[in-house]
C-alpha cells in the first residue's frame, strides 16, 4: 500500500483530472501503473478511472495507459512464423447488443488461412463476452498460455483470455467493475501475442474508434480497422462494436502509418441489410453460444452467418488475403459451408479445451 504522501498525491491527481487537466504519456503511465499493481486503495482507483473516462482520455493518455498495461501486466506468447498474425476483438460497452461476433469471425478467418491470435474477456456490460461463450463451448480459461501458443503454432488459431494474460491488474479490475473505463479502450489493444501486427477492433462510439487507431499508430501496429456499426432507422450514435449487417458502418483504417475514415454498407460485402432483431443478442450466454455453435455446425445460410462472415471478410481484406470486403466475405462463406470453421473450433478445444464441457452445446 502507498504511503500517506503517495495517497494524497494520487488524490490530487484525481481532482485535477476531474477538473479537466490532461496528463502527459509518462504521467498517465505512472497513474495506471499504480492502479494495475493495486498500489492505491480501491476507492481511489475507482475514482480515478471514472474521472478519467468522464472527462474523456486523450490519445497521449491512452498511450500511457497502454504502456503501463503492456509493461506491468501483459504476459506474452510467441510463435515462429513470418506470416501475418491478426486479432479480431471489440471494446464492448456498445449501446446495441448483438450476438457474439468476434469469436466466430476469428474461427472463420482462421479457416481461410489467416493466423488469428484472438483475445477476449468475460462480459462487462452485455450478456456474454468472448470468454463466456468460449467457456461454454469447451475452452478452459485457466489453461496455461503455453497451450494457446501450441494451438497457434499447430492450427493457426488460439484464444487468449484476459483472465489469463492480464493476471495482476486488469483481470482483477474487470471482475469487479460494471462501468466503462479506459480499460475498455486499452484492454482490447493489448498484444499478448508478440507477432500480432494486424487487428480489427470495433468500438462503442465513433470517437473511440478514432482514438483506438491513433493509439495503434503510436504503438507501431502495421494495419488496423476500427468499425462502428449502425442500424438503419436508429440514432447514428447508437451502434455496435463490429461491422453491421443492419445498416452502415463507419470505419477508421490504419495502413502503413496513414489513417483513412470511410463508410461501408452490407452491400459492399455482397450481402443484404437485415433488421437488427436478426442479429441481436439472446438473453443468456448459453443461447448466444448455441447460436454460434449451430452456425459453425451447418446453419450457414442465415443472418447470423452473414454477420460473422462479413466481419471475418474484413479481417481477410485487411491482411491481404482478399482484395475487397466482398471477396473476403465470399471466402469466409465458402470456408464456413465447407465445415472448416467448425474444424477450427474443434482444434481449439482439443488443445485449449476443458474436460468438463457441456456436450449439449458441443453437440
TrEMBL record:
5-phospho-alpha-D-ribose 1-diphosphate binds at residues 90, 98, 100-103, 118-126, 130. It catalyses: N-(5-phospho-beta-D-ribosyl)anthranilate + diphosphate = 5-phospho-alpha-D-ribose 1-diphosphate + anthranilate. GO terms for cellular component: cytosol. The keyword Magnesium applies. Residues 16-69 form the Glycosyl transferase family 3 N-terminal domain. The keyword Nucleus does not apply. Residues 84-342 form the Glycosyl transferase family domain. One of its GO terms (molecular function) is magnesium ion binding. Mg(2+) 2 binds at residues 241-242. Its cofactor is Mg(2+). Its EC number is 2.4.2.18. It comes from the Bacteria. GO terms for biological process: L-tryptophan biosynthetic process. Mg(2+) 1 binds at residues 102, 242. Pathway: Amino-acid biosynthesis; L-tryptophan biosynthesis; L-tryptophan from chorismate: step 2/5. NCBIfam families: trpD (TIGR01245). Catalyzes the transfer of the phosphoribosyl group of 5-phosphorylribose-1-pyrophosphate (PRPP) to anthranilate to yield N-(5'-phosphoribosyl)-anthranilate (PRA). Belongs to the anthranilate phosphoribosyltransferase family. This is Anthranilate phosphoribosyltransferase.
Amino acid at each position: 500500500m502507498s504511503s500517506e504522501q503517495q495517497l494524497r498525491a494520487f488524490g490530487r491527481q484525481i481532482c485535477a483530472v476531474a477538473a479537466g487537466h490532461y496528463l502527459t504519456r509518462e504521467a498517465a503511465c505512472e497513474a495506471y501503473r499504480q492502479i494495475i499493481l493495486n498500489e492505491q486503495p480501491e476507492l481511489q482507483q475507482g475514482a480515478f478511472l471514472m474521472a478519467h473516462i468522464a472527462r474523456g482520455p486523450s490519445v497521449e493518455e491512452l498511450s500511457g495507459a497502454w504502456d503501463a498495461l503492456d509493461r506491468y501486466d501483459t504476459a506474452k506468447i510467441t510463435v515462429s512464423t513470418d506470416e501475418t498474425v491478426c486479432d479480431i476483438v471489440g471494446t464492448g460497452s456498445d449501446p446495441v447488443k448483438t450476438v457474439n461476433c468476434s469469436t466466430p469471425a476469428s474461427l472463420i478467418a482462421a479457416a481461410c488461412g489467416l493466423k488469428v491470435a484472438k483475445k477476449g474477456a468475460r462480459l462487462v456490460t452485455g450478456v456474454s463476452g468472448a470468454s463466456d461463450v468460449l467457456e461454454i463451448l469447451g475452452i478452459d480459461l485457466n489453461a496455461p498460455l503455453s497451450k494457446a501458443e501450441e494451438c497457434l503454432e499447430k492450427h493457426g488459431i488460439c484464444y487468449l483470455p484476459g483472465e489469463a494474460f492480464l493476471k495482476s491488474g486488469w483481470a482483477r479490475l474487470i471482475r469487479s467493475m460494471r462501468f466503462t473505463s479506459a480499460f475498455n479502450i486499452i484492454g482490447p489493444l493489448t498484444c499478448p501475442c508478440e507477432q500480432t501486427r494486424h487487428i480489427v477492433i470495433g468500438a462503442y462510439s465513433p470517437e473511440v474508434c478514432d482514438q483506438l487507431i491513433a493509439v495503434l499508430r503510436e504503438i507501431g501496429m502495421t494495419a488496423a480497422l476500427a468499425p462502428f456499426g449502425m442500424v438503419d432507422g436508429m440514432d447514428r450514435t447508437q451502434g455496435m462494436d463490429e461491422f453491421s449487417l443492419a445498416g452502415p458502418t463507419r470505419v477508421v483504417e490504419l495502413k502503413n502509418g496513414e489513417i483513412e475514415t470511410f463508410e461501408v454498407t452490407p452491400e459492399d460485402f455482397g450481402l443484404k441489410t437485415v433488421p437488427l432483431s436478426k442479429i441481436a443478442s439472446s438473453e443468456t450466454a448459453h443461447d448466444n453460444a448455441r447460436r454460434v455453435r449451430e452456425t459453425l455446425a451447418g446453419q450457414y445460410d442465415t443472418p447470423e452467418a452473414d454477420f460473422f462472415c462479413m466481419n471475418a471478410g474484413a479481417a481477410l481484406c485487411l491482411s491481404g488475403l482478399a482484395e475487397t470486403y466482398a471477396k473476403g466475405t465470399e471466402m469466409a462463406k465458402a470456408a464456413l459451408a465447407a465445415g472448416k470453421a467448425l474444424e477450427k473450433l474443434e482444434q481449439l478445444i482439443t488443445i485449449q479445451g476443458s474436460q468438463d464441457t457441456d456436450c449439449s452445446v458441443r453437440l
